[in-house]
């Protein structure tokens, strides 16, 4: 039925396939607002398998699920970083394996959350990788404020978002939140191994954190972040970054121009998927 189709009504763009690394079949089990749970079935593998995560809800388009959220920390000097669990070892099926896992806001948060679309091969996702967790501004960002007011490669600071309550551009409504495109755990790696992150500071996030255990633990001072890798065909969406998103009712949401998938950064849902295994060390 047309009403069940998650594609927006208008899909004039040519539908092309790009950057696909691995796939899985999604079986939805029903939703109940921010507590909804979706499940996926597929073969398991070392460092992968069925994984529950918290993510920005997919509200339209062909994407099978939301994009995983990254818990946030802010240091004493006001610099913003993503939290990555410390590595530990445990025995699985008679062999010792290294994992990155921690309890955050009632959820088991792990590196598995990000193991899709080829990210499972990135150096920064290895549990024992010696990487910097600070968010840094990405070169070539499409937000005018980012290209004119901060330098690519610099660490993100709270003060850079001082106008987050009123900020606006030519996309959607002003005052919903101030975004930036940043990198995470990606220093001294090839460009193809860069983990791109959508960072937003919003008063809506501050209010949400007062009402939810997970968000209270995973957001700080209105900042919220997600791995910016579309779960459909691995493109890079943007929050309030594409004027064309208005045509699909997504001007105030995270919009992927490849196939018009839409994500709501202010609706965080619990889902599950089959995380792809990391390659074994040589």
UniProtKB/TrEMBL annotation:
<dbReference type="InterPro" id="IPR036922">
    <property type="entry name" value="Rieske_2Fe-2S_sf"/>
</dbReference>
<dbReference type="GO" id="GO:0051537">
    <property type="term" value="F:2 iron, 2 sulfur cluster binding"/>
</dbReference>
<dbReference type="InterPro" id="IPR006311">
    <property type="entry name" value="TAT_signal"/>
</dbReference>
<dbReference type="InterPro" id="IPR014349">
    <property type="entry name" value="Rieske_Fe-S_prot"/>
</dbReference>
<protein>
    <submittedName>
        <fullName>Ubiquinol-cytochrome c reductase iron-sulfur subunit</fullName>
    </submittedName>
</protein>
């Amino acid at each position: 039925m047309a009403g069940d189709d998650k594609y927006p009504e208008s899909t004039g763009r040519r539908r092309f396939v790009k950057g696909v690394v691995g796939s899985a079949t999604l079986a939805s089990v029903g939703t109940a607002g921010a507590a909804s749970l979706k499940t996926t079935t597929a073969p398991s593998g070392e460092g992968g398998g069925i994984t529950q995560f918290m993510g920005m809800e997919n509200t339209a388009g062909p994407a099978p699920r939301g994009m995983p959220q990254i818990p946030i920390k802010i240091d004493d000097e006001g610099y913003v970083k993503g939290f990555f669990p410390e590595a530990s070892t445990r025995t699985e099926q008679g062999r010792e394996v290294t994992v990155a896992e921690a309890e955050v806001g009632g959820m088991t948060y792990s590196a598995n959350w990000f193991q899709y679309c080829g990210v499972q091969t990135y150096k920064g996702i290895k549990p024992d990788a010696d990487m910097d967790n600070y968010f840094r501004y990405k070169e070539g960002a499409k937000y005018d404020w980012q290209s004119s007011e901060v330098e690519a490669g610099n660490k993100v600071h709270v003060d850079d978002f001082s106008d987050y309550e009123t900020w606006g551009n030519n996309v959607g409504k002003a005052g919903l939140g101030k975004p930036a495109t940043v990198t995470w755990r990606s220093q001294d790696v090839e460009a193809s191994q860069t983990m791109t992150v959508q960072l937003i500071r919003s008063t809506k996030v501050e209010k949400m954190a007062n009402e939810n255990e997970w968000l209270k633990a995973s957001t700080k001072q209105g900042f919220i972040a997600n791995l910016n890798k579309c779960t459909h065909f691995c493109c890079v969406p943007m929050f309030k970054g594409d004027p064309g998103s208005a045509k699909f009712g997504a001007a105030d949401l995270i919009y992927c121009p490849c196939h018009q998938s839409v994500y709501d950064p202010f609706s965080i849902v619990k889902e599950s998927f089959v995380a792809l295994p990391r390659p074994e060390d040589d």
